[in-house]
Amino acid sequence: MVAQQIAIPPELDLVPPAPRSLHVVPARPDDPVADVRAAERSLMHAATVGALVGMALGALLWIGLVALGLALTGAHYDVVAWLAMAAGVGVFGGAFLGSWAGVTAAAERMDEVANRRG
């Protein structure tokens, strides 16, 4: 009897292809805390940007609210003092809420690093 050669389609081939490269990736980086430092740096950056944006928006919001209140009451007060006070309140509130929003946005990256490190 003569054995017949059966051609196997490539999609059914069970032999994995040979690796194209023998480049070895180390299991751990040289600096074990590099990813933690990068995550903390991004957290600090997000908190700083959030605080700066929050201060600007908070000041504008409070200046607008106080200006609207002064305009609706028709009061003839020293408007500059009232608007300066509103800007100060807006800066304090915006710094707090903006940095909170920045930290909340970057917290996922810190969790990923913490969970990866075990």
Task: Please give a structural write-up.
- The chain is elongated, with a radius of gyration of 30 Å.
- By secondary structure, the protein is an all-alpha fold.
- 67% of the residues lie in helices and 0% in strands.
- The protein has helices at 34-73, 79-117.
- The longest helix is centred in the middle third of the chain and has 40 residues, at 34-73.
TL;DR of this structure?
The protein is an all-alpha fold and 118 residues long. It is 67% helix and 0% strand. It is elongated.
Question: Secondary-structure blueprint of this entry?
Answer:
Layout lengths: L33 H40 L5 H39 L1
Count the helices. How many? Answer: 2
The value of Rg in angstroms is: 30 Å
SS class: mainly alpha
Q: What sort of overall outline do the alpha carbons produce when their principal axes are compared? A: elongated
Largest sheet: none
Instruction: Name the average pLDDT.
Output: 83
How is the quaternary structure best described?
single chain
Keywords:
mainly alpha; elongated; 2 helices; single chain; 118 residues
